[in-house]
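My current task is to audit a protein record that another person submitted. I need someone to confirm that the token line plausibly describes how this chain folds. Take the sequence as given and treat only the tokens as open to question. This is what I was given:
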Amino acid sequence: MNTKLSNFFKVIIQGQTYLNMFYLLLSFVLGSFYFIFLVTGLSLGLGLIITLIGAPILFGTLLLWRVFAGFERQLTINMLGIDISSVPIKESKGIWGKIKVYLNDLFTWKSLGYLFIKFPLGIISFVVLVTLLSVALSLIAVPILYHLTEIGVFPGAFCITSSNICFMNSYFESIIVGIFGVFLSFIFLHALNGLARISGLLAKSMLKN
């Protein structure tokens, strides 16, 4: 029981917690980039397929999304500590041989799906991260804001209201809210760790080859 309680509170001092949060933040940035790149590359290549440059654009896009998928795999391994197996693709002579190998490789299409999924996943990760941290930090800041209001730094009276009824108008109540915010922050950090873990397992299932 003490071990579980200790693990619950240790989350705030574990470096992996902050790596997980940075990974979730990166998911939004990278997911947006992958989506723009894929939509642009595939649309341009397919739109010009009847010309001489359409096919090279598509093949170039394919090569780059495989590179991005490899980067994502390495990012997941290094930041989340989740092992993802990788088997080198068989080399083939000639451009047409390489195209055939890449098109027949399941990793090519699984990685394409993953990079598209990364966009909505990144948005969800960003929204959850910002929302949970904002709620926790807002509650933790209540005692400080209350004190600053009481000493005249902020004009007026600090009061959290519901239906025009003030239910917090003392130092004691503000401290209780702050303590509740601290407790919530531990819960939220565990939730963010869980979200990062789910994201890592998704990467593992789609980026192994």
In short: The helical segments are 2-10, 15-47, 54-80, 95-104, 106-150, 171-207.
